[in-house]
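This part of the workshop introduces the protein records we will be handling. A record pairs a protein's sequence with a compact description of its fold. As an example, a complete record with its sequence and its structure tokens follows.

_____
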Amino acid sequence: MKQQNFDTMRLPTKQLINKIENLSHGLTPDQLASFLDIIDAMTALVEEAGEFKEEKKVKSPPAPTISSAVH
């Protein structure tokens, strides 16, 4: 299977909702519950990833300056 660039996989919100609705129309109640559980789990993962990314953005201490003077 060819790996896609994640940026090309992003959909506008309305288009994403339409696709989810279309996928869910043919599901039984049990399948729909499982499908929604998966969507909820994916949402939680995305939120956690965003929090992790923000933690990584903490600035690192500046590098020490090296003096050009010879002792």
Observations:
- The chain has a mean pLDDT of 77.
- Residues 2 and 8 are 13 Å apart (CA to CA).
- Helices lie at 6-9, 13-25, 29-56.
